[in-house]
User: What shape does this take?
Amino acid sequence: MSSTRVLILGVLLDGPLHGYEVRRRLELWGADQWAHVAFGSIYHGLAKMAEEGLLRRLGEGTGGRTRYEITEAGRAEFMRLLMKHWWEIRPIVDPFQVALTFMDRLSPADLVAAMEGRAAQLRAAIEMTERAMAAKRAHGAPRHVDETLKLNAAQLKAQLEWIEDALRRVEKGELP
Amino acid sequence: MSSTRVLILGVLLDGPLHGYEVRRRLELWGADQWAHVAFGSIYHGLAKMAEEGLLRRLGEGTGGRTRYEITEAGRAEFMRLLMKHWWEIRPIVDPFQVALTFMDRLSPADLVAAMEGRAAQLRAAIEMTERAMAAKRAHGAPRHVDETLKLNAAQLKAQLEWIEDALRRVEKGELP
DNA sequence: TGACAGCTACTCAAGTTTGAGTACAAATTT
DNA sequence: AAATTTGTACTCAAACTTGAGTAGCTGTCA
Assistant: This one.
């Protein structure tokens, strides 16, 4: 269910890399924006999957750079996990939904301030995403990676519209 | 950063409960849809926060039901975390973004099938959410909890629109 | 009445994530 | 040329999540 494994396997499809390179590649694709790709997770994933035979350890041990190569079993597992990610509608785990659940625990003034602040941040984030898309990045990342930005912007916009509507209702006293 | 703590503290604001009741209450609010609230997480969170003085252990030990009561420190921590959740725009961690990143690794036929399948699932999910909202749930959950459904539906719709557009482009050969 | 399902309440091991820390090399500044 | 910063490559403990497992209790239905 975790996405870390697919990401690591996917990055290694085109050739062996070591942990640091895996991380850099994922950053290039913008994966740090929508996944947990801290160093710890990557090194853990590499070690675990090597143990399971999905990867093959290439370089030297501790200290030097250890490179990992994907095995046939690893390729099969990648495909299996990729399909799963396409077909499974896993509800988005969003900390903002948590905030929403307890909107009645804030004073009206705090609530309005929080909503306005969030709306402003969302507008900024959407604008940044649109600028990034216009800049065409293309610094080695495949073209279709732009699509993740596009989808992300669309979802941020949906959240912004919801906030703008909810803000009106809070001001009218209809919420919470 | 984790949402589990806010959810547990928030549920305990109105009176002591034991682990199983905490889970049921969260389910009632639909939190199982957008957060990690497996039993293990809840019992772990309760034990940890009791140790830290955010909760007070009430009932007996193992075997019987152990009830937990929120302390003053716990209420303060709840407010702190709630504010953080309102103000922080944490990029949504979405497994579907992972699927998207590797869209070029599927055969065109598999890709189209996956996209069509997903679109169908999204339409069903949106309809279900809308029905749930129409049914007015109100089985003890506060009214504003409907808002989480509404926001969720809006985000699902954004994803559906993206897929419908991308599907056209895949068929025209513009993607990936 | 006894057997079987289903609910309540919790435990535990294995896996995963976090985030700070280490260590050394290359580049840059003073 | 010494000092400082920046970048590369990795480690580790502590925290968190998962999911299967356990164990008692309450119907219920033949």
Summary: Residues 95-171 of chain B form one domain. The beta strands of chain B are 17-18, 55-57, 67-70.
